[in-house]
Amino acid sequence: MRRWVCPRCKKGKIAPNSPATLDVRRWCLPCSEETGRLVERTCPARDRENARRAASRSATSRRRREAAERRDRDRHSFDGLDVRVETRRLLRLKAWNGHFTGRTPPNVEVVRSRTPGTSGKAFPWGNSIRLIFEAGNDRGTEAPETTRRKRSELRALIAHELAHLVARIPRPRGGSGRRAWHGQRWRELFRAAVAEETGVHIPTGDRTLPQIWSDAVDAYLQGPEASP
User: Fold this and answer.
1) How confident is the model at residue 168 (pLDDT cuts 50, 70, 90)?
2) E-assigned strands of 60-188?
3) Which residues, 6+ apart, have CB-to-CB distance to 152 below 8 Å?
4) 168 and 200 share a domain?
5) Average pLDDT for residues 159-176, to the nearest whole number?
6) For the stretch 214-224, what's the b/e string if a residue is b when 16 or more beta carbons lie within 10 angstroms of its beta carbon?
7) How far is CA 77 from each of CA 81, 103, 151, 177, 181, rounded to the nearest angstrom?
């Protein structure tokens, strides 16, 4: 049983925690008669208790939301770099010839793998890229030179996969498909993106994919964006 108080005359009645709608103790009849409208009594103790519970729920929800945001940020971070921020910055490059202007930004999926190294996949018709990192390989405890190289590799990898989205070449299913996947169209886009961002023009000519990758990483190491 609790005390229910009229907000108008401040007089109260002892009633259950949740009196029925038809319970006369729930209503202040004298004030209702004076005002011509039903005046409902309130329970200050219950109101205080509800406020405490609401505050507790709000704090719990905030902690859960912040924890979820931290997990999401950690999942999309690599050596202190937010992959999504890096991708948004690279989307603004003129090398893409306005391909991403006015379109929904590509979805960026980050996968933690037990396999050493860093790799990626692009899905042009799904407008998404997948970046694959070795689990535990981004703790930021290495020497500054190692961290700088890994960040350069990350930026080069994002540019690599975005070039696939712009080139819109079907994913390879055979020997000729694999050659087209990293063919002339993709190479021109990738080289242009790296040159625009780093100011370093990587070599052209008949170079293998590993050579092009090495040239791009070296360009990011030399360019201004390579610094943490």
Assistant:
1) confident
2) 77-78, 81-82, 107-113, 118-123, 128-134
3) 217, 220, 221, 226
4) yes
5) 80
6) ebbbbbbbebe
7) 5, 24, 11, 32, 28
Each as own residue / partner, the long-range contacts of residues 18-23 (CB below 8 Å, 24 or more positions apart, any chain) are none
Report strand pairing: 128-134 vs 107-113. parallel
Q: Are residues 105 and 66 in the same domain?
A: no
- Range 121-142 average pLDDT: 78
Both 151 and 110 in a single domain?
yes
Q: How many residues does the chain have?
A: 228
- The closest of 84, 160, 93, 78 to 122, measured between CA atoms, is 160
Residue 213, both tokens: 């990758």
Give residue 77's pLDDT band: very low, low, confident or very high (50, 70, 90): confident
The pLDDT tens digits of the residues spanning 27-49 come to: 999 999 999 999 999 999 999 99
Structure tokens at 94: 């003129």
pLDDT at residue 130, as a whole number: 92
Classified as helix, coil or strand, 80 is: coil
Residue tagged 């209702």 (tokens): 32
Say if CB 39 and CB 8 are below 8 A apart: yes
Residues 111, 57 share a domain = no
Greatest extent of the chain over all pairs of C-alpha atoms, in Å: 96
Residues 92, 90: Cα–Cα separation, whole Å? 5
- Model pLDDT, residue 117: 77
- The rounded distance, in Å, linking the Cα atoms of 147 and 140 is 7
